[in-house]
Amino acid sequence: MLDIKFIRENPEKVKQGCQKKQVKIDIDRILLLDKKRREFLQKIDFLRAAQNKISEGGGRDKTQIKKAKELKNQIKELEKEFKKIDEEFNALMLQIPNLPFDDVPIGKDESENKVLREEGKKPKFNFKNKDYLEITEKLDLIDVKRAAKVSGTRFGYLKNEAALLEFALINFVFDTLIKQKFIPVIPPVMLKPEMMEAMGHLSERDKPERYFIEKDNLYLAGTAEQPIGAMHAGEIFEEKDLPKRYLGFSTCFRREAGSYGKDTKGILRVHQFDKMEMFSFCEPEKAKKEHQFFLKMEEKLMQALKIPYRVVQICTGDLAFPGAAAYDIEAWLPSQNRYRETHSTFNDTDFQTRRLNIRYRDKDKKLGFPHAINGTAIAIGRTLIAIIENYQQKDGSIKVPVALQKYLGFKIIPKK
Fold first, then answer.
1. What domains can be seen in the chain, in order of their start residue?
2. pTM of the full structure
């Protein structure tokens, strides 16, 4: 949530930021409601002061009793009106996205994201390369046909060496990032609606992606960012404890709404997947540096796996609701002759911490809101796809990246 004081002082900047993110919201209406709220609060405070004055003076004669009753009724009516205004105000405030930084490229959608650089050497095959699904079905590593029978489309079974590869990736990431003062955590994968809302993941664009269990009034997490970010709601950090970095593993759930016909086969776009997520609470003045550090960690992992990739700066129209700036890492997929997203990292400033009332106390004992940074450590399904396609061999086998071999005890997944 943006600071209302900031909106009052910078209405045009807020309007422009919303326009850049293609979010339609009536900022003038919000400012009008804000003004009315303050006027009502002032009136209510004035009447309560008068009411208290009568109480302090004894208030026992008929005139005073009558006056006190009148004041009580007036306050009651004003509070009723205030409640309506306050509810509309808060509902509209929650619809304002985080504003993009000035250096974020302006664009309408992902087609206008900016490619910053390409890294790694793309494989050159002396045979006709295959896509991951053809390879893995022959090796009995991924089974989407039986998953469809059991659960429907956009599900899959990981089997044999593929299942072991997942755990190798998890251990590899934990080993790499715990050295960088990340705290390992396995969070709950269900959230209360108010926590999902506070994290900024129930916007008009995001809500169709969420799975909601109506009977229990709980949302299934779409990423570990959501339960990790909400973990410290209502708490106060000490400045010396920042940055507070977490590395979470969780199963994630997304509807993939609006992606009908896109990657419907296989495990690239699925309703259920496992992912490891980095999250940091940090001092505001260090947030941009922390964001670059997250990007560096994502690249470090990809470089260790020797998967070719490119780094993309996200434009305003493709930027997530809570994000002020973001980068994607896209892995090279030989079968598609293109890069596909495997990682994202966001600088969400104090947008989420303000909504969650997470604060920190600086050395001068002053309270403020820390900034929140999140980023994918490993999207396991998509990383497996990239490994399988880039490490495929002519005989149908798959080499194992050197960085993972010590966790597996084998160097190749042989042809069966």
1. 4-93 (1.10.287.40), 110-413 (3.30.930.10)
2. 0.93
